From TrEMBL:
This is GntR family transcriptional regulator. It comes from Thermoactinomyces intermedius. CDD domains: WHTH_GntR. PROSITE patterns: HTH_GNTR (PS50949). The lineage of its organism: Bacteria, Bacillati, Bacillota, Bacilli, Bacillales. Pfam families: GntR (PF00392). InterPro entries: Tscrpt_reg_HTH_GntR (IPR000524), WH-like_DNA-bd_sf (IPR036388), WH_DNA-bd_sf (IPR036390). The keyword Lyase does not apply. Transmembrane segments: none annotated.
C-alpha cells in the first residue's frame, strides 16, 4: 500500500495518514496481522516528522485498527477491527450531521447525497455495481 500525502491540504498530515491506513484496511490492501513500518521507518519513507506518524498510530491503536508491540512492531489488528457499537454509531451521526447541514445549505438534495455515499461505499467494498 502506498501513502500519498497532500502537504498543501487543510487536513493535518497525521489525519491524512490515519485515513489512508483505514482506507487500506477497508479495501483489504492491509489484512489482519499485516505489519506496518515502525514509526521511524514510516516517517523516513514518506518524509515527515516521526511525531506525526506516532500521533496517527496512537489514534489508530485507540480506535482498534492496529496493535503496537515492543517486539513485533506495528500490525493491523490480528482479530480485525471491532464491529460498530452504539458509541460508534453516535460518533458517526455527530460526524455526518455538519456535512449534511452544509450540503443542504449548498443545495445538495438527499438523493444526490445518498448517491455520493453509495459511490464512496463502492470504493471501499467489493460491491461495485451491486446496489441494494
Amino acid at each position: 500500500m502506498q501513502i500519498f500525502l497532500d502537504f498543501e491540504s487543510d487536513e493535518p498530515i497525521y489525519l491524512q495518514l490515519k485515513h489512508q491506513i483505514i482506507a487500506g484496511i477497508a479495501k483489504k490492501e492491509l489484512k489482519p496481522g499485516d505489519r506496518l513500518p515502525s514509526v521511524r521507518a514510516m516517517a523516513a519513507d514518506i518524509g515527515i516528522n516521526l511525531h506525526t506518524v506516532n500521533k496517527a498510530y496512537q489514534q489508530l491503536k485507540q480506535e482498534g485498527f492496529i496493535l503496537i508491540h515492543r517486539q513485533k512492531g506495528v500490525v493491523v489488528h490480528p482479530e480485525g477491527v471491532p464491529e460498530a457499537d452504539e458509541a460508534y454509531r453516535i460518533k458517526l451521526e455527530q460526524s455526518l450531521s455538519p456535512l449534511i447541514a452544509e450540503s443542504v445549505c449548498r443545495g445538495i438534495g438527499e438523493k444526490e447525497f445518498q448517491q455520493l455515499c453509495s459511490r464512496l461505499f463502492e470504493k471501499f467494498t467489493d460491491r461495485e455495481g451491486d446496489n441494494p
